[in-house]
Amino acid sequence: MKAFALFATAAALALTAGTATGAWAADAAQPAAVADIVRPATDLPPPITRRAPAVVKVNLVTQEVVGKIADGATFKYWTFNSKLPGPMVRVRVGDTVEVTLHNPADSMNMHNVDFHAVTGPGGGAAATLANPGETKTFSFKALQPGLYIYHCAAPMVAQHIANGMYGAILVEPEEGLPKVDREFYVVQGEIYTEEDHDAQGELTESIGKLLDEDAEFYVFNGAFKALTGEKQLEAKVGETVRIYFGVGGPNKTSSFHVIGEIFDNVYNLGSLTSPPVKDVQTVTVAPGGATVVDFKLEVPGNYVLVDHALSRVERGGAGILHVTGPENPEIFKAEANPNQDHGH
Question: Per the database record, which ranges form the Plastocyanin-like domain (predicted)?
Answer without folding.
Answer: 70-175
